[in-house]
Amino acid sequence: MEYLAFFRASEELEQELKSFREGLVKGRKEEVYNFPSAGVHCTLFKAEAEEEDENSILNNLETIRKELGEEGLVATASELDLFAKNSLVLKLERTESLHKLHRGIFVSFLPYIIKGSAYMDRELLTYFGDNYSPHISLARFRAADYVPEEWQEERTKFSGREFQVRDFCLVKADKKAGEEWREVWREAEF
């Protein structure tokens, strides 16, 4: 089972980002792009784990939430950028508190990741831990050639925007069976 832990931007920023990306893809064929199935979000961690380990994972996540306290954390937008050459993202500053949240979730999942899964090898080493680069996923294009160049003119449009992160969410899906994400742990106040 695939698990995805993430948080969302503030409602106001989320609406602005959706409007921005809608304008960017307007008039383009839908088969050359897609929007993240989890919506506009910032991935904290993604892994494959056995469903029978879910309660242990949730207990670990509850501990992480308590450690962060009621204030949560402040996330700050950096700039629009391309991730993996074909995904448009809004980069976030990698603050100590944001990295601590990611690291806590990463460590919570580590004992339960299915050995030999993609997330245990390439993805784990490339995108998580010390290599974690927080960003809000906006759209993925079929190939780098399909990415509209107009985004570059707006690179700093959201720079410096701050928003409070007081919750995070865990969803799961059997992606190999074509399932959509379904909620495991609702966004809950820290």
Quick synopsis:
It contains four helices and nine strands, in the order βαββαββααββββ.
Features:
190 residues, alpha+beta, Cyclic Phosphodiesterase, Chain: A, nine-stranded antiparallel beta sheet, 4 helices, globular
**Element string (H = helix, E = strand):** EHEEHEEHHEEEE
CATH topology: Cyclic Phosphodiesterase, Chain: A
Range of strand content: 25-35%
How helical, in percent, are the residues? 25-40%
Tell me, rounded to a whole number, the average pLDDT: 86
Low-pLDDT runs of 5+ residues are none
- Counting DSSP E segments of at least 2 residues, the number of strands comes to 9
CATH class term: Alpha Beta
- Main β sheet profile: 9 strands, antiparallel
Termini separation: 25 Å
Q: Could you give me the name of the CATH homologous superfamily? A: Cyclic phosphodiesterase
